[in-house]
Amino acid sequence: MSELLLIRHGRTPWNECGRIQGHEDVALSAAGREEIGARRIPSEYAHFRWHASPLRRAVETARLLGARDLKTDARLVELHWGEWQGWTRQGLREHHGEAFAANEARGLGFRPPGGESSGELRLRLQDWLAEVCAIEPAVVAVTHKGIIQMALALATDWDLMSRAPVRMDWRCGQLFSTDGKQACLQLKRLNVTLEADTDGCSEADR
């Protein structure tokens, strides 16, 4: 079995105003950099191999957390929200009403106009798991909310339409185990707290 620690990227200006980012390559905000720069992954995971989505917010987060020999992979990118990137969920509900609600209720069939479906995101995540976790016994990946929610769905058979079976703290990591070959995930530890950085380095030193 391999262990996989998934961490969501830090805050961006779009997060702070509730805008959907999808594939938009938004950098961390000043507050996000400060928040992440003060943290490290727990020492028990220090030997894990680092991976990340190639979007700036994920790469910045990984490096601020102390990533070394970082590998990026497009299969870890957030769901492509197509024409809805840049919108807020409230704005979508106000402008698209029942059509947006009906799309949300499709579970794996959810697809924003011009974007990809949740099912397609699931397939690329499974492909990454089968490739990477089959050969690496300990992996930490800095990625996006949609990817981590899909990992939870794979581990718990959550249908993505009802309330999530557990409450994830997005400031923490989520630890899964997987057999790699079959890409069968199990939730091993919920809400792994990122430790305070005590090495005395400022963001400018990194």
Biggest beta sheet summary: 6 strands, mixed
Judged by helices, strands and strand pairing, the structural class is alpha/beta
What's the tally of helices? 6
Q: Which CATH architecture is right?
A: 3-Layer(aba) Sandwich
Gyration radius, rounded: 17 Å
| Count of discrete domains | 1
Residue fraction in strands = 15-25%
Low-confidence stretches: 201-206
Widest beta sheet: strand line-up: 4-3-5-1-6-7
CATH class: Alpha Beta
Mean residue pLDDT = 93
Give me the secondary-structure topology.
Elements: E1 2-8, H1 13-16, H2 30-37, E2 39-40, E3 49-52, H3 56-64, E4 71-72, H4 89-104, H5 118-132, E5 138-143, H6 145-156, E6 173-178, E7 185-192, E8 195-196
Parallel strand pairs: 1-5, 3-4, 3-5
Antiparallel strand pairs: 1-6, 2-8, 6-7
Helix pairs in contact: 5-6
Structure, briefly:
Helices cover 31% and strands 18% of the residues. The chain has helices spanning 13-16, 30-37, 56-64, 89-104, 118-132, 145-156; strands at 2-8, 39-40, 49-52, 71-72, 138-143, 173-178, 185-192, 195-196.
Describe the protein.
The chain is an alpha/beta fold. It has one domain: 3-Layer(aba) Sandwich (Rossmann fold). It has helices at about 15, 30-35, 55-65, 90-105, 120-130, 145-155; strands spanning about 1-10, 40, 50, 70, 140-145, 175-180, 185-190, 195. The strands form 2 sheets. The protein has a 6-stranded mixed beta sheet. Helix 5 crosses helix 6 (about 145-155).
Which key phrases capture this entry?
alpha/beta, Rossmann fold, 6-stranded mixed sheet, two-stranded antiparallel ribbon, 18% strand, globular
